[in-house]
Amino acid sequence: MTTLVACAETSPTEGEINIVAVTDVYGSIASAVAGTHATVTSIINSPSQDPHEFEASARTQLALSRAQLVITNGGGYDDFMDTLLAGARNPDAKILRAVDLSPRSDAEIEANEHVWYDLDTVEEVASALAETLAFVDPPHASDYRDNAGHFTEALAGLKQRAETIAAAHAGESVLVTEPVPLYLLEAAGLSNVTPVAFSTAIEDGQGVSPVVMKDVLDLLATGDVALLVYNEQTEGPETAQLQAAAKTHGIAAIPVTETLPEGADYLGWMDDTLTAIESALS
Q1: Domains of the chain (ranges, CATH numbers)
Q2: CA within 20 to 30 Å of 125's CA: 105, 118, 154, 192, which one?
Q3: In whole angstroms, what is the distance from residue 275 CA to residue 162 CA?
């Protein structure tokens, strides 16, 4: 399936700073830090879109050509952005790549590039945003830093929530259809028992071999798995089969996404995800 992606914008009440984010996840973080001093355009902005299926539009290219600041994920997640940026002919744009700011090791990122589910990485992104915006727009530097400070305080609350869940459920096993949410699940103390061959096949859009599928279904049947987490943006026959098996064995299952649910911001989304994890484990 090919997804035609429209750009969603939030308009400023003042200022002319243009920020382009690869997804509305980073767009939400940018809006929180920039406040009213920037227009934020999110290239991928719908929970019904699979970010792995992308086709650029002329509007996307135009937004990038006008941007003072561009936020990408990196790590192989959005390689199409490199091509778009080259075509935009905007060498003055500041580029922030989340994986370059992440405290995660290269090996961790190679295994799981979805670093927006890592709250420590998001804190670094917010800080880098504030400092980059302060450089681009010095008159509003204190606003950007203050906004980043408030955002970081809210992140600290989310980290505390994850630690509380970990205190109650440390070491319990989780099965995932893809590695997308693993950083947050690990912060909540959960142990990933998913066979790599399974999650890799699902993430790459390949068929899961019968042997690997049996291994995963056997894991659910043991009763040792406390939670199933599935990416609802890339559901297919195999993930549906897992959800059915989890239901049969009385295992809670919760969905996650790679982009924001409609009407959500980043902080509320992560808070809701932690609530879902806690409720499912309880």
Answers
A1: 8-160 (3.40.50.1980), 169-281 (3.40.50.1980)
A2: 192
A3: 10
Runs of H (alpha helix) within the chain: 24-34, 58-66, 80-88, 98-101, 106-111, 119-136, 141-169, 182-187, 196-203, 210-222, 237-248, 266-281
Beta bridge partners of 95: 70
DSSP state of 112: -
- What token pair was written down for 156? 């600290």
Residue 40 dihedral angles phi and psi, to the nearest 5°: -110, 125
* Closest residue by Cα to residue 94 from 52, 137, 54: 137
> Over the stretch 77-134, which tens digit does the pLDDT of each residue have?
998 899 899 888 898 999 999 999 999 999 999 999 999 999 999 999 999 999 999 9
- Of 122, 132, 139, the C-alpha closest to 93 is 132
Asked whether 66 and 48 are in contact (CB, 8 A), the reply is: no
Whether 6 and 16 have beta carbons less than 8 Å apart is answered as no
